[in-house]
Specification:
There is one protein chain. By secondary structure, this protein is of the alpha+beta class. It has seven helices and 20 strands. The protein is 23% helix and 27% strand. Strand 16 and strand 17 form a beta hairpin. The longest helix is centred in the last third of the chain and has 19 residues. The strands form six sheets. The protein has a five-stranded antiparallel sheet, with no helix packed on it. Strands 12-18-17-16 form a four-stranded antiparallel sheet. The protein is globular and about 55 Å long. The mean pLDDT is 96. The site of uridine-diphosphate-2(N-acetylglucosaminyl) butyric acid (EPU) has 16 residues, from strand 12 and helix 5. The site of uridine-diphosphate-2(N-acetylglucosaminyl) butyric acid has 16 residues, from strand 12 and helix 5.
Length: 350
């Protein structure tokens, strides 16, 4: 059954910016999803499939229907060496992580407290504290929007990368993630190589998954603003990948620059670049670069999407002027008829 909710999107995305749309429908089953999606396509209406809205910025009124992923259900299979978890896409990711630790299934602890639906996790291959979704993923089930059949993709077929997957490329707007399959080894090895987790190694007693979970939660709560109190969408920009020689040139000029080797490239800490431009606390209207974490833009209460766009453009320009490094936003921009981006918006104003 179709449930129409309020057409103001403010409660449905973590930036909590007031923006309207034509209709909002909760999706509880694949059959319902197919029926509604097909009828919207026939009516030539724009459709947006949304999880918890923790990685989006609505730049305008969305002239279409927003479908909210509420496909619920979990199945667990115990194998000899692994726990296999089949999780329907609408399940809340941080709740799943906490539940898995309580059940004694180790492996998800580094990915604690990342907001969003489980079905959204593969889209940008969520990652934190040295672990990415791809490290625990066995498969991803998708509804193909041409055949209307559910198909299973292996982890390899998902072509995961840093904040990247097949869902941003070949399968962009061609598939909806309806479930994910996780494979967690019973012979668990802690992953505590990432900076702030290293100190967990100091004790003689082996560290537990629960301890890592607790540490990750406390670091995140101290570093990142809580969207329930201050609207935001996590890191606004991705950490940019640059060629090694570019990194060495920058390092010669700025010896403290933070970069991590990633294949033959170097991933720069965008937060450091923005911070060194003196932009922490910089405001445009109600939008502000977070005073403690420069990679996050916050809504101080009454920010408009225009404020966030102006601020993002300013940050991008300042970083370019100082370092000649191009920042790309991680947050997905949704315009009046579908996805857009900062460059397109700035171009359209010329
Ligand atoms: P949404 O914002 O609802 O959707 C994101 C995009 O995916 C949209 O384009 C949407 O159309 C598309 N989409 C959603 N669901 C589906 C689906 N089932 N099938 C196809 N397309 C779909 N991310 C990290 O990687 N690491 C972090 O540490 C991290 N920390 C964060 C901290 C905070 C405070 C916040 C607010 C965000 C953070 N994020 C982080 C970003 C965010 O949590 C992730 O991107 C998350 O996976 C988004 O889930 P969602 O359900 O909210 O997706
Ligand atoms: N830094 C500064 N100033 C700042 C912010 C950061 O100098 O204002 C420096 C830090 O001191 C550190 C480096 O930049 O040396 C990296 O900072 P941090 O460890 O906080 O990580 P990040 O690069 O800011 C990334 C992810 C986060 C993820 C954390 C932990 C991206 C775009 N962001 O942030 O993911 O939680 O690492 O793994 O990759 C998200 O994607 O939304 C997100 C929050």
């Amino acid at each position: 059954m179709q449930t129409s909710l309020t057409p103001n999107l403010k409660p449905f995305h973590t930036f909590a910016i007031s923006q309207t749309c034509s209709n909002v429908v909760e999706i509880h089953s694949i059959e319902q999803l197919i029926e509604i999606y097909q009828s919207l396509l026939e009516a030539k209406q724009a459709v947006l499939f949304l999880g918890k809205g923790s990685n989006v910025l609505f730049t305008d009124h969305f002239d279409g229907t927003v479908l909210l992923n509420r496909l619920m259900g979990i199945e667990v299979v115990e194998g000899e060496e692994h726990w296999q978890l089949h999780i329907n896409g609408g399940e809340d990711w941080p709740t799943i992580v906490e539940w898995s630790i309580k059940q004694g299934y180790a492996g998800l602890e580094n990915l604690a407290l990342i907001p969003g639906c489980s079905g959204s996790a593969p889209i940008q291959n969520i990652g934190a504290y040295g672990v990415e979704f791809q490290d625990v993923c066995e498969y991803v089930d998708i509804l193909c929007l041409d055949s209307w059949k559910v198909k299973r993709l292996s982890k390899l077929e998902c072509k995961f990368g840093y904040r990247d997957s097949i869902f941003k490329h070949e399968l962009y707007q061609k598939a909806i993630v309806v479930a994910v399959g996780l494979k967690l080894a019973k012979y668990w090895k802690p992953n505590i190589a990432y900076g702030p987790l290293k100190s967990l190694d100091e004790s003689d007693v082996p560290v537990t998954a629960k301890e890592i979970f607790n540490r990750v939660c406390s670091i995140r709560m101290s570093k990142l603003p809580d969207p329930n109190r201050q609207g935001n969408a996590g890191s606004f920009f991705k950490n940019p990948m640059v060629e090694r020689n570019k990194f060495e040139d920058l390092q010669a000029q700025y010896p403290d620059i933070v970069g991590y080797s990633s294949g033959d490239k170097v991933k720069l800490a965008a937060g450091w670049l923005i911070d060194q431009c003196g932009l922490k606390g910089h405001q445009v209207g109600g939008a502000m670069v977070h005073p403690q974490q420069a990679l996050v833009i916050v809504n101080q209460g009454e920010a408009t999407s225009k404020d966030v766009i102006e601020l993002a453009a300013y940050v991008k320009q300042k970083v370019w002027e100082k370092y000649q490094v191009e920042l790309e936003h991680e947050v997905r921009f949704i315009g009046s008829d579908g996805e857009t981006n900062l460059t397109q918006i700035l171009e359209s104003r010329k």
